[in-house]
Amino acid sequence: MLDGRAGSGAARLRLDLDSLPGRSHQQPLVAEGRTAAARQTVKITAPTIWFTPLEDRSVAALGTSDGSGRDTRAMSIQLLNQHVDRFNRAVRTGEWDEMTSYFTDDAELAFEGVPAGPFKGRDAIASAYREQPPDDEVRILDADQVGDEVIAGYAWALDPERRAGEMRLTERDGRIAKLVVTFD
What we know:
Elements: E1 2-7, E2 10-16, E3 29-34, E4 39-44, E5 48-51, H1 72-93, H2 97-100, E6 103-112, E7 119-120, H3 122-131, E8 138-146, E9 149-156, E10 165-172, E11 175-182
Parallel strand pairs: 6-11
Antiparallel strand pairs: 1-2, 2-5, 3-4, 6-7, 8-9, 9-10, 10-11
C-alpha cells in the first residue's frame, strides 16, 4: 500500500510490501513514489519502509495555482516543451519568427559557457537567432519546476545520450520571460 502523509513540512511515503499480492517481502522491489515535494526511487527489502524525500518543502508551499485555478507548474513545463518543439522546427527550416514570438517583449536570453549574449528584448533575441542560428536540435532529458523556474537537462540530437547542459526558463503570462541556457 502506498500512502502519502505530511509531517513537519515533508511528504512521506509508506510502502507495505506484505499488502502486495504474490510478493514476498524478501524479494527486492523498486518502488517509485511521487509526492508533491519530490520524486525519488528506492530499493527496499523490508516488509514496511518509511521514506522521506530529500527535498523538504512544505506541502502548503507547493501550491501550483496562481489564483486562477491553473496549474502553473504544468503550464511552465508545457511552455518549455513547446519552446523546444518550435526551436527544433526552426533549426530545420531556418524560420525563427514563430519561436521568438513566444518570448515576452522584455525577455532575456542568456548563455553560460559560450561567448554569446546576453540578449534583452524579443527583437534582440530574434536577431541573434537569425544572425547566428544553431545547427542542431535539442532533446530534453529531464525537467522540473524549482521556484519560478523550469529547469531542464538537455542533449543535442547528434549526441542524444550525453547531457549538454541545462535550460532554465521563467514564464510570464504564457510566454518566456527569461531563458538561460548553460553548456557543460
